[in-house]
Amino acid sequence: MCWGFVDYENTGSLEGINVKSYERLLIFCGPNNSKLKLGELSTTEFTKIELIGIKTNGANNLDFHLAFYLGRYHEIAANNVEFHIISNDDGFNGIINHIKNIGRKCKKVHTRKKTNQPKTKKTKASTSLSECAELIISGLKQINSKKRPKKQKTLTNWIKSHCNHLKPETNAEVVFRELSNNSIISINDSNIEYKI
Predict the structure, then answer these.
(1) pTM of the predicted protein model
(2) CA angle, 64 as apex, 48 and 110 as ends, to 5°?
(3) Which of 11, 47, 90, 138 could form a disulfide with 111 if both were Cys (CB 3.0 to 4.6 A apart)?
(4) Taking the domain 2-109, which CATH number applies?
(5) 28 Cβ partners below 8 Å, 6+ apart?
(6) Where are the domains of the chain?
(7) Mean per-residue pLDDT for 58-71?
(8) By its UniProt entry, which Pfam families does this protein fall under (predicted)?
């Protein structure tokens, strides 16, 4: 038996995940996740899917909620239930090791491999984008176009909060320029226009 805990704010999609391999799937969504991409769902298997909406923004806010639910469900789940944290965020490694040390099977499942190729093809530049830029594009696609950051400072802060867990030394200004140089964004009358 396996339960999945999805950091949807980080993954942006479940298209690379075999959903039917989970008895229970808890999908944690932030306030900017207005649309979910579940990928192909099997009609012959049963998976209980729970959406847990987090209404507030903040650095690692969704991660803290996911960690809380991990602890909560560890207390009530049978000992033979394995936990999978579906995320590309290395910040979960510590709690995964802790859960393993207290006797429950637990591992992290990455989604990046399946979703990187199409994103690169959709960009207008011939060069490949950095991992952080790819993550930002994926995250921005999940946000209603009217709710995306409109000013450079707001987008730079948004980039910083979403990429800091990947590489703490990430310079948000460099990622902003990368998006601009690859025609993903442009500035028109001090407002950002998105071409995604």
Answers:
(1) 0.57
(2) 60
(3) 11
(4) 3.40.50
(5) 5, 6, 7, 8, 9, 52, 54, 62, 65, 66, 69
(6) 2-109, 131-194
(7) 91
(8) PIN7 (PF18475)
